[in-house]
């Protein structure tokens, strides 16, 4: 959807008038933009050639267009031919030829405003803003009514060169021209839109671009500029529509391909853009940023270098390089690049804002804030800088100041989707509860505050103590944790936009965002622990730790946290080794940045974890700690590894490969090439489904059985074949044979955690056989490695309670709570356990949670809670709670008795 | 059509009646509020209409609900088997049930006509409809074998029950328009859906029966289940089910007990409907062994009086400041609890 059309009334009325006027005018003009030269006579063949050339240009047949324009010799059409020819050259990156064509055609810039303006634009594209400025000034000085395009291009060059006030004068002149009813052509209306955009009049810019397209649906420049406006405001959907509309007209139009690359399929679209114009600066620069983001440093720098060779005044390319220098603490290089920018654009706010944005996107929030502040110092009206500042302050936990800047940005640029989204999350948070422990400040929904918080609070503090002790480091407090009920709010708070993919928790160093466990089917306690480890490793390295190591340590720590936590992806490991998917340790970040699927991302986590486990196992935890500290400094990764392990990366990598080979040998399971890997959400947090085994559960296929028997005969250590065979046989009620295969599968891979696992199916087999003891035994076996199951621990907890084994009951209740604290039954069982243990406080806690969760019978829920309060010597709470039960059920005698007891207790307390 | 129409009943007065009934002690001055005043002499009848099913699986579900409803009324609510008339599909038998006939229109009309001859003044008839329904505005049908029965058809068949209290529970899909035809003063009508567009088979019947079983829906713990309690229980469970599944609810149950044909989604306190449904109980009243000592009779009268005051206060909650309301309520509840304890201790 495009922006809502809201404009100033005067401008709106003018636009309406122009719609009427523009049609007849347009019908008499042959060239859309430049038909302002005096007309004396027509050469129909030249006119036809010109039309043909323009058509070829529009459709992207640039070489054919060059040929046609070059053949036009009629003097009368020379100016228009030169315009077409120069544009065709520019679209193919032949800037020199374009310049030569224009210079030949221009005698006096003031007499050839269109050609001179085109030449000035060419100067801008090739990093000669000073020449562009002089050329445009000459046109404007020599013309009573210079073309709108000249005014706007002059404004742009003045703005680039730091003369904001003079630039605004030109932009306002363009708008006045429009308001005066003197702008008719689509191309000129688009230029007025650019002027409005530069004056931060985004409503008007939007409406004017819309008007330009209405006047000429083939105005590619307007379509892309409008798309860029959408994209700048993070409205990717509308941007994409515009770029695609342009590409339907001209599939080789490089500016549209570059725009589209910022929204989807970046490499493919940038490659197509460079195929059309290998010297397109925007494409080169965007490609460079993409490569840098994906850890392909050399290629990225190569692209940026090419971009700057063509246009040494590309602020974006210079800002990216400067930000990279700042990331590496190379301030000499930063200053050199800053001087380079200052030479043509003194103290550019845009430059600082871009540096800040780049740093923020790379987790360097403190520095991002610093540069965004510098941008605002230079230009307080740079709303983009306010958004960058606000967003990064929020990630540092500086919510109040962050909100102020976001609000400022939104008030002046309400179309910025990112700013608007982030502000909406503040509204969500206002409804949330704020809860505190010694080291944490937590925001969560009122429901989560009732249900989750009683179990999360002790987990946070006990985890804190363990990690402080282990890492010898105390992070800055309070650590802010925000738990969002809606995944869209979680995503917006985390990255500003509502789609974040499979992530379930993100740590920014001092701030952690989480999806509420209410919307997950995963062990939320493991997720909390995982993110807390990030708090430590990121703060220990001032957010300089690369993602692979930070994720590797957090994932490795999962296994250290509790026996059932962590990932056991033995089959994936064997498959990855078979398919040579393991990345060299030095390239592990590419596993994250270059992931094409959830499975890729999940494996990136797993391999990173394996590297950390290798370090901890082979070198010891102290060396892992030393490596973490290395990342606090700016050094080459190979140097850090050498400092800690005394070997280079290649040797380290070789050792890791040997260790992996040994691990694969130890697992010693055959993995058939046809089997699909297990799949799951949440990049490793949560159940991973074995789709082949699930299908085997659904069908009793004779052919499947025969096939799997064949596999087992050929490869007795074929885990998947044994499992599927066991499932099929179970469905056929061939229980004994099923048990044999399922037990074999379990022995082959005892820590398999996919769904269904051999132990789970065995439990089902025994249940079908009526052997409850064996069923429970298998459920217990399954739970040794499967942490995401709710029903099994509940079954075992109930049985333990029935058997008076309160310790086991407590263990399994905790296991169920770790998966789903929102199910009333776990609290009912918990309350029973607490009552039997004489733990009156815990009984109260369980009934308080039940009051929130169990809406079916509020009278019973309140009466139970009141009873628990009474037992816990909280007679006032008991009184008020039971009054609410009796309000509905005044004759309920059990509640009546509680009321009388509560009143007695209150009286006794007052007497004492 | 409505024989016992006394005109509009003041709200407070109705609550007073409701209170009297809840403590199982009918007051003698009920001339202005003639409905649902069953006592130990009253009989209760049930008619279960089970329509045609679209598939064997659905037929199995309808039969299960029919059987469960029949057995629950018989075993837990004191209904004489002879007083439960089951009219099923095209008359094929259901294990364990004696059928009164098929659910063809003619059979329904015959069965209701016969029942009219047996039922006494002051008795209560509850009519449960299980099956598929269909309908557009003004043309709603119960899908039975043979010509489908319309709401107008059934309304005409019920016209003769002028001396009895009627409860109609229509659990079919697109049941709303049909149910609206049955709306009448002094009658409680429950519809599983609130518009003809809610045409998918509702879950309502299952939860309604679940609420009946073991008096699960007895929210106020008076050991009796009212139609209002059942409605609230089943409607709440249906909403919870859709919420849990993350699906948009395709059924929304409604209730009308004022005879205006305007159904409420949330009947009860502060709603247009619900006051009659609150005193419409489904159980057959069993005579109690009352304590006969003068002290016991005096205490019982006091308890009834206090309970009445509680209902009055609760109904006027919005007229009190929060603290004042709870202080007053607490005083009454303590009084009631103390007297109940004393009463129970009496021989």
Can you summarize this structure?
Chain A is mainly alpha-helical and 912 residues long.
Descriptive account of the structure:
Chain A is an all-alpha fold and 912 residues long. Chain A has 48 helices and 5 strands. Helices cover 70% and strands 3% of the residues of chain A. In chain A, strand 4 and strand 5 (511-515) form a beta hairpin. Chain A is globular and about 105 Å long. Chain B is an alpha/beta fold and 347 residues long. Chain B has helices at residues 11-22, 56-76, 105-118, 151-158, 176-182, 204-212, 227-245, 275-279, 294-315, 322-345; strands at 44-50, 84-88, 99-101, 124-130, 133-136, 139-142, 149-150, 165-170, 187-191, 254-256. Helix content of chain B is 41%, strand content 13%. Chain B has 10 helices and 10 strands. Classes of the chains: A mainly alpha (912), B alpha/beta (347). Chain A binds chain B through residues 855-859, 879-880, 883, 886-897, 899-900, 903, and chain B through 22-23, 219-222, 233, 236-237, 240, 307, 310-311, 314, 326, 329-330, 332-334, 336-338, 340-341, 344.
């Amino acid at each position: 959807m495009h922006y809502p059309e809201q404009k100033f009334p005067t401008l709106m009325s003018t636009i309406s008038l122009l719609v009427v006027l523009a049609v007849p005018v347009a019908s008499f003009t042959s060239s859309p933009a430049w038909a302002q030269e005096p007309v004396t006579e027509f050469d129909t063949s030249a006119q036809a050639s010109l039309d043909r050339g323009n058509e070829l240009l529009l459709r992207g047949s640039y070489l054919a267009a060059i040929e046609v324009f070059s053949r036009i010799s009629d003097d009368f059409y020379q100016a228009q031919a030169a315009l077409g020819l120069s544009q065709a050259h520019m679209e193919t990156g032949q800037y020199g030829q374009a310049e030569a064509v224009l210079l030949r055609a221009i005698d006096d810039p003031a007499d050839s405003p269109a050609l001179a303006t085109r030449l000035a634009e060419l100067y801008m594209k090739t990093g000669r803003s000073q020449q562009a400025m002089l050329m445009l000034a000459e046109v404007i000085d020599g013309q009573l009514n210079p073309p709108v395009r000249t005014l706007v291009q002059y404004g742009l060059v003045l703005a680039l060169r730091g003369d904001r006030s003079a630039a605004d004068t030109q932009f306002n002149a363009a708008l006045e021209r429009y308001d005066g009813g003197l702008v008719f052509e689509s191309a000129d209306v688009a230029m007025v839109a650019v002027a409005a955009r530069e004056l931060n009049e985004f409503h008007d810019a939007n409406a004017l671009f819309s008007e330009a397209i209405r006047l000429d649906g083939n105005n590619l420049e307007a379509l892309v500029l409008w798309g860029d406006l959408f994209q700048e405001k993070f409205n990717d959907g509308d941007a994409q529509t515009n770029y695609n509309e342009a590409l339907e007209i001209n599939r080789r139009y490089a500016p549209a391909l570059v725009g589209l690359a910022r929204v989807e399929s970046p490499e493919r679209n940038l490659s197509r853009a460079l195929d059309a114009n290998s010297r397109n600066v925007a494409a080169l620069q965007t490609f460079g940023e993409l490569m840098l983001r994906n850890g392909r440093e050399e290629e990225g720098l190569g692209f940026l270098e090419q971009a700057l060779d063509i246009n040494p005044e590309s602020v974006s390319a210079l800002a990216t390089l400067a930000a990279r220098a700042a990331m590496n603490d190379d301030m000499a290089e930063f200053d050199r690049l800053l001087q380079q920018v200052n030479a043509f654009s003194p103290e550019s706010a845009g430059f600082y804002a871009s540096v800040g944005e780049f740093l923020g996107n790379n987790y360097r929030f403190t520095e991002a804030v610093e540069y965004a502040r510098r941008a605002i110092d230079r230009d307080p009206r740079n709303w983009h800088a306010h958004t960058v500042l606000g967003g990064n302050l929020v990630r540092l936990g500086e919510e109040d100041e962050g909100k102020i800047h976001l609000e400022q940005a939104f008030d002046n640029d309400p179309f910025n989707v990112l700013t608007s989204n982030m502000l909406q999350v503040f509204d969500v948070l206002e409804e949330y509860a704020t809860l505190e422990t010694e080291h944490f400040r937590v925001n969560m929904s009122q429901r989560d505050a009732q249900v989750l918080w009683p179990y999360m609070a002790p987990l946070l503090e006990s985890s804190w103590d363990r990690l402080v002790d282990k890492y010898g480091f105390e992070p800055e407090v309070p650590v802010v944790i925000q738990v969002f009920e809606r995944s869209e709010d979680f995503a917006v708070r985390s990255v500003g936009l509502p789609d974040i993919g499979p992530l379930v928790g993100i740590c920014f160093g001092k701030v952690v965002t989480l999806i509420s466990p209410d919307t997950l089917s995963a062990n939320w306690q493991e997720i909390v622990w995982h993110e807390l480890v990030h708090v430590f490793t990121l703060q220990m390295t001032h957010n300089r730790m690369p993602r692979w190591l930070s994720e590797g340590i957090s994932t490795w720590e999962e296994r250290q946290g509790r026996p059932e936590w962590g990932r056991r992806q033995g089959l994936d490991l064997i498959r990855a080794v078979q398919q040579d998917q393991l990345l060299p340790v030095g390239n592990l970040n590419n596993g994250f940045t270059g992931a094409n699927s959830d499975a890729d991302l999940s494996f990136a986590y797993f391999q990173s974890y394996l590297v950390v486990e290798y370090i901890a196992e082979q070198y010891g935890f102290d060396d892992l700690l030393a490596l973490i500290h290395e990342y606090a400094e700016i050094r080459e990764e190979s140097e850090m590894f050498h400092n800690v392990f005394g070997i280079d990366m290649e040797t380290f990598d070789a050792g890791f490969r040997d260790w992996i080979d040994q691990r694969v040998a130890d697992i010693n399971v055959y993995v058939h090439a046809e089997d699909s890997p297990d799949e799951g959400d949440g990049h490793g947090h949560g159940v991973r489904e074995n789709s082949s085994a699930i299908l085997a559960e659904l069908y009793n296929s004779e052919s499947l059985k025969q096939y799997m028997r064949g596999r087992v005969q050929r490869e007795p250590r074929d885990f998947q074949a044994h499992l599927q065979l066991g499932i099929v046989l179970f469905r056929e009620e061939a229980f004994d044979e099923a048990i044999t295969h399922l037990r074999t599968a379990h022995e082959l891979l005892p820590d398999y955690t996919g769904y269904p696992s051999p132990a789970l199916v065995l439990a089902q087999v025994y249940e079908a056989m009526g052997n409850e003891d064996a069923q429970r035994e298998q459920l217990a076996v399954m739970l040794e490695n499967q942490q995401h199951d709710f029903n099994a621990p509940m079954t075992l907890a109930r049985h333990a309670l029935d058997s008076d084994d309160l310790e086991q009951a407590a263990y399994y209740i905790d296991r169920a709570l770790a998966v789903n604290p929102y199910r009333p039954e776990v609290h009912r069982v918990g309350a029973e356990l607490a009552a039997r243990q004489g733990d009156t406080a815990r009984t109260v806690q369980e009934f308080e949670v039940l009051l929130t969760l169990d809406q079916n019978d509020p009278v019973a829920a309140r009466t139970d809670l009141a009873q628990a309060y009474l037992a816990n010597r909280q007679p006032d709470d008991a009184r008020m709670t039971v009054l609410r039960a009796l309000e509905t059920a005044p004759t309920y005698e059990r509640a009546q008795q509680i009321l009388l007891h509560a009143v007695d207790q209150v009286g006794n307390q007052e007497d004492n | 059509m409505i024989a016992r129409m006394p005109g509009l009943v003041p709200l407070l007065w109705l609550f007073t009646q409701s209170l009297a009934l809840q403590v199982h002690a009918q007051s003698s001055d009920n001339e202005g509020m003639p409905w649902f005043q069953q006592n130990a002499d009253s009989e209760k009848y049930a008619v279960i209409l089970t329509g045609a099913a679209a598939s064997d699986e659905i037929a199995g579900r309808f039969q299960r609900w029919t059987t469960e409803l029949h057995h629950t009324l018989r075993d837990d609510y004191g209904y004489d088997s002879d007083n439960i008339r089951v009219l099923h599909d095209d008359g094929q038998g259901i294990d364990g049930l004696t059928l009164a006939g098929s659910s063809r229109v003619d059979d329904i009309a015959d069965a209701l006509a016969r029942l009219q001859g047996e039922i006494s003044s002051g008795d209560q008839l509850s009519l449960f409809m299980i099956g598929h329904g269909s309908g557009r505005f003004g043309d709603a049908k119960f899908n039975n074998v043979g010509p489908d029965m319309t709401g107008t058809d059934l309304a005409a068949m019920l016209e003769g029950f002028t001396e009895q209290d009627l409860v109609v529970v229509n659990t079919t899909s697109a049941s709303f328009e049909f149910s609206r035809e049955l709306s009448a003063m002094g009658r409680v009508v429950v519809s599983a859906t609130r518009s003809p567009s809610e045409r998918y088979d509702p879950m309502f019947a299952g939860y309604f029966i679940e609420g009946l079983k073991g008096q699960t829906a007895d929210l106020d713990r008076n050991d009796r289940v009212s139609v209002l309690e059942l409605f609230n229980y089943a409607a709440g469970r249906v909403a919870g089910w859709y919420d849990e599944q993350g699906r948009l609810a395709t059924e929304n149950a409604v209730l009308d007990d004022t005879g205006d044909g305007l159904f409420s989604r949330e009947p009860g306190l502060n709603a247009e409907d619900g006051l009659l449904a609150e005193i419409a109980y489904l159980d057959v009243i069993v005579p109690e062994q009352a304590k006969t000592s003068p002290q016991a009779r005096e205490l019982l009268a006091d308890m009834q009086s206090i309970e009445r005051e509680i209902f009055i206060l609760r109904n006027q909650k919005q007229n009190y400041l929060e603290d004042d309301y709870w202080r007053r309520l607490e005083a009454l509840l303590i009084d009631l609890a103390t007297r109940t304890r004393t009463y129970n201790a009496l021989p």
